[in-house]
Amino acid sequence: MADDTAQQASGTVETRAETTKSPSEFAKFWLQAIDLASTDESEWRKDGEDTLKRYARGKTQGFNILYANTQTTVPALYNSEPSPDVRRRFDIAQPTPPQMGHNGGPPMDGMPPPPEVIAFQQQMAQAKQKQEDSKQVSTALERALTVQSERYNFDGAMQAAVRDRQLPGRGVTRVRVLIAPKGTKTLKCEHVQWDDFRHGPGKTFEDWPWIAFRHRMTREELVKLNAKVGGQVKLDVAVGDTPPKNGDTVPDSFKRALVWEVWDKETRQVYWFAESYDAGPLKVDEDPYDLRDFFPIPEPLYQVKRTNTTTPVCEFMLWRPLADEMDRITTRIIGLIKVLKAKGLYDGAYAAIVEKLKALDDGEMAAADDAGRSMANGGIDKAIWMWPIEQIVKVVEALYVARDQAKQQVFEFTGVSDIQRGETDPDETLGAQQIKAQWGSLRLQEAQRDVQRYARDLYRLMADLMAYVWDKAAWAAVTDVMLTDEQMKLLQNDLQREYRIEIETDSTIRADLTRAQQNISGFITGLGSYFESVGPAVQMGYMPPDIAVGLASAFARMFKLGREAEDLLDTWVKKLEEMAKNPQPQQKDPKVQAEEVKAQAQMQKAQADVQMVQVKAKAEQDKTQMDLQAKQAEFQLKMQEMQAELAMMQQELGIKQQELGMKRQEQAADMAFAERQQQMDAQAQQRDAEAAEHGHGLKMEVMDAQAKARMQQGQRPNGGAR
Q1: How far apart, in Å, are the Cα atoms of 539 and each of 534, 536, 549, 588?
Q2: Prediction pTM value
Q3: Rounded Cα–Cα distance for residues 276 and 237 (Å)
Q4: pLDDT of res. 335
Q5: Are 462 and 175 in contact (CB under 8 A)?
Q6: pLDDT exceeds cutoff 80 at 574
């Protein structure tokens, strides 16, 4: 309990939770954090103010080397607005085709494809669709970034950031979403004044827990920010850089309130605090942009980078003693030049002669008064004593030499070589000038890459914001690209968009035209020599074509031809790799090639005859080709006729076979009928025979009966009486 009492008495807090006990404690905590950040950078801010005053100093007797160097280095770092370059980061991997059909062959006609073939076709369609989605999203992003950067002076924001980098030592640019009266959302890259920015403690940009922007708000802006307490905030800052004089009062209409816009990464909230109002925050906003790193700024531009802190360093303070020395030397030179005048004394007796001399023009002569007396005294030059300027001239010359030496030390310190200023030594060789230009610009090249990185990060921030604030209709209206639902998902998914879409910029430095032409000329010459050297090896099969082109592509990257040329070379390599998978017939035997070369050499000696032979050969070849084509056509016609005759014969044979079958069926039926008839006749004959035999038996039985009857009647068998 005693510790809590002591802590409350001291007014300090140890945890973030303690700051939220009351709005006033919360406001005090953040205002103290901003004040501590200002204290940490107070020395640098003083150096920055002194540097800007020195840079803009107009009325001076010194040589403003800071202005001269800045006007040279700033255009060297940034002199051309970059264009966004958005493309697919990687090609979509193609699926491996399965073996189809029996023993790896194609499936039989009419048979449905097997499941593995259907799966492969689906995978191919998905891969193709992913390629198309990435292309469409890349096109939409590039168009949107181009339009937005041109609409809100992206070039001006970049120039201001680079100039702040070169003078105070740090350049900051924020990306802001603007809402038009009709609800349309647009983006703007806005320069942040170098002394209106604060950040939390951290050795790197990624370690910063919060950042803050300072605003000078009018009463209307305060009320718009918070209608409830905006009218209670005290306006305590006068407009303008010049403070009011003692006793003067500034009207409220010319006063502002200092308001800090704090972006807290831990809570992902934005707080608004006024220095003259500690009762609580003026406003609290939830994460307004949903950015991956939360902050609406890229990593700032630093002139001097250190690994243990992110507090800027004003580079001018490192070589300020040399600039002060140049000022002192220049001041002495100016003072000596003021007294470096042709003046002197003369003998009063020669006043008339001196006046006459002063009135003479170039080449004029006049008669001397009392010339004898002048000659007797050794001449008039003995009576005139001139101001001794010879020693002053020697001192001035020595001072100029000393100032040039100090200037050269500044150039060596800052990396501004004499060749970059257009100053050359007429006795110096071209090689020496190229060496100085190459090595003297190494530090500038590093700074140029940092500026290009900064422009790229700004474009990426804008792309993140566009994906968050624009819907499908807005993308179609701005870019004239109709995105599908799947493409919108890719666009709005930060992780997928980063992996599949690459956002870069072209160079922020307008290259020297002569140097670019020399670079291209050197590339073309070297490429021709290279292929001339490796050509025979490729033709004889000692070196694969894709290896030769791959080496050429690797060499080409040393010439900085740009991404488009490198992409074309990569495409060339891929095509050759595909051709290698389907090799062409082997080249002719080297001996045969040698004989052909020898024959060509002999033919060149008699070029006219060879041309005639070639013409005749061409004619014969054409005639032979025509005859061959005619014979082929005739042969094809005969083949067609034979095929037609064969088809007719086959058709007739089929008909005859059908007729023969029918005849055979009829004969078989007739034979079956005849056989049946014979069977029936035989049966009839058998029945007749059996009937005759039976009738004969009956007849015999009747005769026997009659005989017996007659005998019984006493009749003889032949019918007579006994």
Answers
A1: 9, 5, 14, 9
A2: 0.67
A3: 10
A4: 86
A5: yes
A6: no
HEC string for 75-143: HHHCCCCCCEEEEECCCCCCCCCCCCCHHHCCCCCCCCCCHHHHHHHHHHHHHHHHHHHHHHHHHHHHH
Range of lowest pLDDT (272-286, 376-390, 537-551, 654-668): 376-390
Q: Which of these ranges, 175-184, 266-275, 420-429, 619-628, has the smallest mean pLDDT?
A: 420-429
What are 216-237's pLDDT values in tens digits?
999 999 999 999 999 999 998 8
Query: Where are the domains positioned within the chain?
Result: 2-63+90-100+115-315, 345-386, 513-587, 605-712
Radius of gyration of the chain (CA): 55
Distance between alpha carbon 508 and the CA centroid of its chain, in Å? 14
- Compute CA distances 33 → 37, 72, 595, 599, whole Å: 6, 38, 88, 90
Between CA 450 and CA 442 the distance in angstroms is 13
Report how far apart, in Å, the C-alpha atoms of 98 and of each of 115, 124, 425, 697, 711 are: 10, 12, 71, 98, 118
> Each residue of 68-92: pLDDT tens digit?
888 888 888 898 888 898 888 876 6
DSSP 41: T
Provide the b/e sequence for 343-359 (b: ≥16 CB within 10 Å).
Answer: eeebeeebeebeeeeee
- Cβ distance 172 to 461 under 8 Å? no
Question: How far apart are the C-alpha atoms of 260 and 271, rounded to whole Å?
Answer: 8
